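Batch manifest line 608
LIGAND: fructose -6-phosphate
JOB: complex structure
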Amino acid sequence: MCGIVGYIGSKDITSVLLSSLWKLEYRGYDSSGIAVIENGELKVVKSVGKLMTLQEKLSKERIEGSVGIGHTRWATHGEPSDHNAHPQTDCNEKFAVVHNGIIENYYTLKEKLIKRKHIFQSTTDTEVIAHLIEENYNGDLKDAVLRTVKKLEGSYAIAVLSPYEDDKIIAYRKGSPLIIGVGNNENLLASDIPAVISHTKNIIIMEDDELAVIKRDTIEIFNQKGEKKPLKINKIEWEPESIEKGEFKHFMLKEIFEQPEVIRRNISLRIVDNKLNFGDSFRFNKKELSNITNIVIQACGTSWHAGYIGKYLLEDIARINTEVDISSEFRYRNPVYGGETLVIAISQSGETADTLAGLREAKAKFLKVLSFVNVMGSTISRESDSTIYLNAGPEIGVASTKAFTSQILNIYLFTLYLARIKWRLEDEEINEKFALIKELPDKIKVVLNNNERIKEIAGIFKDKKNFIFLGRGINYPVALEGALKLKEISYVHATGYPAGELKHGPLALIDKETPVIAIATSSNVYEKMLNNLEEVKARNGIIIAISNMNDEKVKKIADYIIEVPYVIEHLSPIINVIPLQLFAYHLADMNGRDVDKPRNLAKSVTVE
Ligand code: F6R
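JOB STATUS: finished
ARTIFACT:
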């Protein structure tokens, strides 16, 4: 939540800061701003509203300078407004601060600062940082920041700029992500790689409690005591084009259409010479895993849905007792752990605050943690004992799509791995499954080829105010995911239900106004699903069914059919979710919603 950028070098400062901010807009978009040192003075320009309003403001006034910071905000403390937009400054406008995260003790700090005659302009927690730096500054900005962070509680990433030391940006990370782009006679700072990738592929991922002094031609990293640390530079493999929309109207649509490639990439990285390979970040040995008797999966939102699918897979294939919980619940309950428990954290961003807290809870109880994460080097991956990366490439649309299908595939592969270790499957059986997995990319393409028909159906229902999504078994979490996709980007109410539960209450909602989207593909509960759909039909419900090709039984019951190719039940969520993603996309787009940046949301939820 919130995006931070910084630049020092000789390129046009406003265009570098703005173009970097555009790449981070997914992290927050209720206000934005920049601070640049111009002719020895701090110049701050900020604006409430989407980044376009800041861009328009900046197009009217030219700012010259070679060092600056910027921010795009997702409000936590203080409503979105010009005053609350970052950068925040001290009383004399000598220190500008941009911040991602929450200062939990800001209220006490602010009261004390006010008593000491500091004048506040905003209602943010961030402004206390600028005033504390003002008090702590004694001719050394690095020192002032180190002294300031000692007083802060919470999790945060900050960047600080001051005309007193106009040759540098100071950055500090504690709990919220920060990376440094290492350039040639220029350097950059950002919350995420997309903001710097068009300038450099050489990245330093800052760790917690590290301070960086970023100058035009040097970068120095210090620990919280001010001791210098060695630099670790990573090379990013992906191309800048992967963060452009290309021919697509929205990132979400592009990312839905990338799924055949994402699945193909995972297959070629994970199945090598008919053996599973989870890469260097997977550090468990077979012995440790063979002792596992229980698994607890914890995640949020779409990642939780993938975890729920994982429960069906792990129990059915590897025969391991598996619980799945929403991280914000998991972290505050007091679970009873029996036997050898493995905790799995699933996260696209690798920064989700609740999932991270759940991971830390598990580690505090000395449990092993495996994470499935998309963003390389993110906090969740660094704090886990082992990580399986999702290789989905950057996901920019706020609604998660390609990360979800690669989460399911990687969990499925991990399940096969465990099943082999625990002698539940023979090599031959696993090889047969590999062959089926390899058919997935082409089968996904078949679904994508049906895009126009799905759009047509979305058009028919675009004015409906309520939707019910039904699934059973391993496709029940897919129904939850279909409902989540629709509500988050179209703002239409949608609920996902296990179809067998309908008659215990929700059947009362069925009438001719409420479309029911049902997953009715081949499975061990297929006939049961048909019975449930008959119950809906008998109450004049309108049924849109996801069915396998030429399924005459479903055709007789449903009003609209979206056909998908047959795959085995365990892999069916990967295929069945795609029409639901497209349905949600088109319905939202037809209603003029900002699909990639739905209201009130942000891509990376780094606050509780
Ligand atoms: C929905 C969506 C969210 C995320 C959730 C967890 O489309 O994207 O529900 O899945 O905020 O985020 P990660 O996976 O980054 O931990």
